[in-house]
Amino acid sequence: MNVIYVDSIADEALAPYARLTEAQLMNRLHPEEGIFICESIKVIRVALQYGMVPVSFLCEEKFIDTQISELQVDVPIYTASRNVLKQLTGYELSRGVLCAMRRPQLPPLSEVLSGARRIAVLDGVVNSENTGAIFRSAAALGIDAVLLTRTCCDPLVRRACRVSMGTVFQLPWTFFESYKQLKDKGFTVVAMALADNALPISEPSLKKCEKIAIVMGAEGEGLEKNVLQQADYIATIPMMRGVDSLNVAAASAVTFWELMK
């Protein structure tokens, strides 16, 4: 293994872990050179299993033999003392290992939708933890693919990857431009929102739709009016005890379960 010891987070090799922002890691000018940071050995294993390409690792020395050696990778493994690594914001939350990986090229919309019958659509969901949790629910409950508007959080940001437990690598996903693209592919667009004309999510007619796109909105404001106007149906989860709604991640799990029955 190519183990490299560093004594300061100022070392240029640690820039992806210590100094580069998510936008800089993405490298919009040269997306083929973009990378993302994956944390925790469980998530890293899933990423490698689904074809993600590692660039380097960063961890305490004790994790090299106990965790990284089993991966059989031939890339630099940077290590430092715990005192040095503590200077990395959030490192102690990483469960030991960080890995910089090449950003994959996103598949075209037609490929993501090919053969799909139930898809999740995220519109303006900006919280990385919610994004990761929605992906995890989608994968666990049988959703075929995930689409995102350009206003959404990138699913490959560090926190989203971790909260998803690697399901961002398992499910096909990409960004899309208009709901017309989905309708042209035969999807019935079901917008989840609080509205007077909303159907309960258990409505039998929803389950009879051959292909459904389940649209989840922003954490605070929900879906914009123009999105609701484009939807074929507006649906909601009936609430009790005066509660008006669920967190978008929790709502996604309930909705996916109900519409996959």
Helix content: 25-40%
List the strand order in the largest sheet. Answer: 8-7-6-11-9-12-10
Give the helix tally: 13
Mean pLDDT across all amino acids: 92
| Category by helix and strand content | alpha/beta
Shape: elongated
Helix-strand pattern: EHHEHEHEHEHEHEHHEHEEHEHEH
How many individual β-strands?
Answer: 12
Distance between the termini: 48 Å
Assembly annotation = single chain
- How is the biggest beta sheet arranged? 7 strands, parallel
Low-confidence stretches: none
Beta fraction: 15-25%
Output the radius of gyration: 20 Å
Task: Produce a short descriptive summary.
The protein is of the alpha/beta class.
Could you characterize what this model shows?
By secondary structure, this protein is α/β, with parallel strands linked by helices. Helix content is 33%, strand content 20%. It is built from 13 helices and twelve strands. The protein has helices at residues 15-18, 22-26, 41-49, 62-68, 82-85, 109-113, 128-140, 158-163, 167-170, 179-184, 204-207, 225-230, 248-260; strands spanning 3-5, 35-39, 54-59, 77-79, 97-102, 118-122, 145-148, 173-175, 188-192, 199-200, 212-216, 233-236. It has a seven-stranded parallel sheet. It has a five-stranded mixed sheet with strand order 1-4-3-5-2. The model has no long low-confidence stretch (mean pLDDT 92).
Task: List the SSEs and their pairings.
Blueprint: E1 3-5, H1 15-18, H2 22-26, E2 35-39, H3 41-49, E3 54-59, H4 62-68, E4 77-79, H5 82-85, E5 97-102, H6 109-113, E6 118-122, H7 128-140, E7 145-148, H8 158-163, H9 167-170, E8 173-175, H10 179-184, E9 188-192, E10 199-200, H11 204-207, E11 212-216, H12 225-230, E12 233-236, H13 248-260
Parallel strand pairs: 1-4, 3-4, 6-7, 6-11, 7-8, 9-11, 9-12, 10-12
Antiparallel strand pairs: 2-5, 3-5
